[in-house]
Amino acid sequence: MTVMSDLVQLTRANGIAIVTINNPPVNALSPGVPEGISEAIEQINQDDSVKAAVLIGGGRTFVAGADIKEFGKITSGKSRGAGFLPLLLRIEDCRKPVVMAIHGAALGGGLELAMAGHYRVAVPSAQVGQPEVKLGIIPGAGGTQRLPRLAGVAKGVEMCAEGNPIKAQEALRLGIVDRLIEGDLLAGAVAFAREIAGKPAPKTRQRNDKLGTPEQNAPIFAAARETARKKQRGMKAPLAAIEAVEAATKLPFEEGCQAEQRLFTDCLFSDQSKALIHVFFGEREVAKIPDIPKETPIIPVNAAAIVGAGTMGGGIAMVFANAGIPVLLREVDQAALDRGLATIQKNYANSVKRGRFTQQFADERLKLIQPTLSYDGFASVDMVVEAVFESMALKKEVFRELDGVCKPGAILASNTSTLDIDEIASATSRPQAVIGTHFFSPANVMRLLEIVRGKATSKEVIATCMQLAKKLGKIAVLVGNCRGFVGNRMFHPYRREAQFLVEEGASVEAVDNALYDYGMAMGPLATGDLAGLDVGWRIRKEYRHLEKPGVRQPLAEDRLCELGRYGQKTGAGWYKYGENRRAVPDPEVAELVRQWAEEAGIPQRQIAAEESVERCIYALVNEGARLLEEGYALRAVDIDIIYLNGYGFPGYRGGPMWYADTVGLKKVYDRVCEFHRQHGELWEPSSLLKQLAEKGKTFADFNREQGVTA
Ligand code: 3H9
User: How many CB atoms lie within 10 A of CB 198?
Assistant: First the structure.
């Protein structure tokens, strides 16, 4: 064996050279890896006994791409980045055929590496893709040039612009992969290498037969641009990726690569890419809880139960069933249970219709959901999620009953979105087993899961829920037990400001459009209509006695509710809704709000879109800072991940706290102070925001200093 480095090894087996990359956990192309591969290729070229070569990844995967941690060094000028393009040319020009053997994933630079080989073989479970756009960049080592040459222009542009990986079977059909290997990958790859040794080796960069004609390609690129503008609104990278693939169809390979390089560099140095890379690491960081070590024992969750078959309960039952966990679904009366099941059946039927699930998958999942009117069977489940009506008295009663029927060690979770977990836990004899699992609606679709830690919740229960979330396809963020937890507590001032803006003279559409153009999936007022304005109205009525007299409160939404305008479900709220629930501006609302504002003595004025954005987004940031200083959110990035996955915040802005850091906390703080002067105590600046702004620091600095950021 020739050891090139710790990261790359070269061995020989009867005329076949085997290059193994060993850079755990995902064989990223970190410094040392490209150099090691380059040296191995050099030796293979020189060794006459070698007839062909196999390149394979050690451990759980082929190569997951460039080392994303290195990008920060490149953009800050601390590193120039590895020259992958010349390395890939050297592989392609190797005098012996190189077979790339893929298991796990060949992503980004990993797929670019694989495409520079002369052949690719893969295990059926492997995936290949160019996910760079999800990091705000585009493939930067020939991916946009080689992929359309293998897979054709339509699929090449789709994969580069949308970033979704495909499975080995599809890669085989498209011509990205040459053979699937059942059984041992290395043995299969070596056998394949023997078959092709001595035969002419195709160079991907010279394969132009799938590049199409300008007439064929024009509609493909037009459609890709249209899709990118709709599905990845506001993002630059998808459009750059399309331009780079277009260059592949119009320019010779070398010039195409130069065009790709230029676009890649533009994207890499953009704020969008920095934000999305922050999100990539953030999504992994939120899983790490400083006082809960990795070795914390996990409670196996092999069977679950849900109490309440309403919209949330039914959705949560589907989440468990979709992960293959059998689940009991309890309701108190047959009619409610039937309604809940009918909704679940309808949701599965829709998923089958849309091609998300096969009929067989949907049937199997549905069988895992067992409806019940009693607590029979609850004694054997490992976890219960309560999803009954949002009333403390009712929840306490349910938990008292669960305490009586569930086995010791079972996790008792509440899906409450606002109520005190400790008070709920007090209804049981085992508060250490009680936790909040706040799913977002629709539970079977939304990725976010806020996990609420009560003061007695055990570390095992927290660790289990964090890990279970991954199995359920959710991204879990651990939050503290305060009213509204993190997401909804911040959402309150955000929506409050949107209403104030309308009461001060902005139109409903102007406020919503300003936030939509900022990148939010939906404007704040339209979001209220979607969720149901009556939900907040009922809560406000319950807590009215806690409001401080003399402090301004929004008035229009309560009055809309008094008029029966609850939003989409009643056909009217801030907007009118016709066919297909399309929002139509309602002049009646505009007139009513003017009247109410006049009665309340609120002066009317012109409001620019910029002020709408600042009022709403800085309200989020100020409350987020307060949650950090009070310790209910662990890190600024936790808040970002919550907002990106649960509230339609645009990924390319990195989340509210990251965005505030990029604006500069001094500037944010100054605006908050100005709003405080203009609008009163609701805008009192968070003391953490003040402190950081005065010291010229960021939220990210704060977390580093607290030692809670990896
Ligand atoms: C690129 O290739 C640009 C090119 O065009 C070339 C330009 C010149 N780098 O996700 P996991 C870490 S851009 C550094 O939990 P899984 C990750 O942070 C790249 N680190 O595992 C985590 O660390 P920790 C394009 C990376 O099994 C650990 O590995 N490629 C990288 O659930 C485990 O990760 C991509 O965008 C990386 N490239 O999923 C693929 N990847 O344990 C990105 C992972 O400290 N990666 N880490 O928290 C993935 O999608 C998933 O990691 C993968 C495995 C599917 C591979």
Answer: 11
The per-residue DSSP string of 319-355 comes to: HHHHTT--EEEE-SSHHHHHHHHHHHHHHHHHHHHTT
With 0-12 / 13-18 / 19 or more C-beta atoms within 10 angstroms meaning exposed / middle / buried, residue 649 is buried
Q: Which atom of ligand 1 is nearest to the CA of 84?
A: 8
Given a contact cutoff of 8 angstroms between Cβ atoms, the answer to whether 319 and 387 are in contact is no
For residue 520, give the nearest of 398, 656, 386 by alpha carbon. 656
> Per-residue confidence at 705, pLDDT binned at 50, 70, 90?
confident
Full 3-state SS string of 638-693? HHHHHHHHHCCCCHHHCCHHHHHHHHCHHHHHHHHHHHHHHHCHHHCCCHHHHHHH
Q: Which atom of ligand 1 is nearest to the CA of 287?
A: 48
Share of the chain above pLDDT 70, in %: 99
Contact 82, 37 (CB under 8 A): no
The pTM score is: 0.95
Distance between CA atoms of 306 and 327, rounded to whole angstroms? 7
112 is catalytic: yes
Which residue in 92, 112, 158, 331 is the catalytic one?
112
CA torsion angle 637 642 647 651 (round to 10): 40
pLDDT for 710: 47
- What confidence score (pLDDT) does residue 336 get? 95
Q: Confidence band (pLDDT; 50, 70, 90) for 81? A: low
Is 82's C-beta closer than 6 angstroms to any atom of ligand 1?
no
C-alpha to C-alpha distance for 537 and 533, rounded to whole angstroms: 6
The dihedrals phi and psi of 228, each to the nearest 5 degrees, come to -65, -40
CA of 26 to the centre of ligand 1 (A): 6
Of the listed ranges 171-180, 322-331, 354-363, the least confidently predicted one is 354-363
- Ligand 1, atom nearest to 284 Cα: 48
Cis peptide before 86 (omega within 30 of 0): no
SS3 state of residue 516: helix
Other CB atoms within a 10 A radius of the CB of residue 80 amount to 8
Mean pLDDT (whole number) for 170-198: 97
Q: How many CB atoms lie within 10 A of CB 82?
A: 22
Query: 329: closest CA among 350, 315, 346, 347?
Result: 315
Cα angle at 702 between 629 and 493, to 5 degrees?
40
Helix (H, G, I), strand (E, B) or coil at 541: helix
